[in-house]
What does this fold into?
Amino acid sequence: MFRSILVAYDGTRDTYCAVRRCMQLPGSSDTRIHVLCVVEQSLFGFLAEYFHLGAGSKDAHPELKRLNQKLDAAVEDLKSFHDHVSKHLKYGDPLEAIEKMIRELHPDLIIVGHSKKVPRVAGLGGKMIDIQLAERVHCNLLIASD
It folds into this structure.
């Protein structure tokens, strides 16, 4: 059994497979699920500049609200299968945010989504995050795909 699981989800269908895979895992009443969504700083910077948003307005843009709603829905889906599910919405570089969460949570398992259509982890800025992450983590890494 896993005590702590980190699920990377960015609101896309490609990464929702990580959420679905987590639903399939057996868990105990002590298993803690953490769903992490990272909004790349460059995306927020673009939106803030375009819509003249201040730093305190990160959640004001409709796209960010929609992303937060998808994150909430994923958390609710997971709560149907696991007792302890929490969400984490971060801004910045996805790889750095994932690494920071790993240092904070010490998960036994990390689940990320992967699209078979493109050679990268889906939804994480088009970078080869799956390879970089695999080289840096010291726990189980599950790359889920449909």
Observations:
- Residues 119-127 have pLDDT under 50 and may be disordered.
- The chain has five helices and six strands.
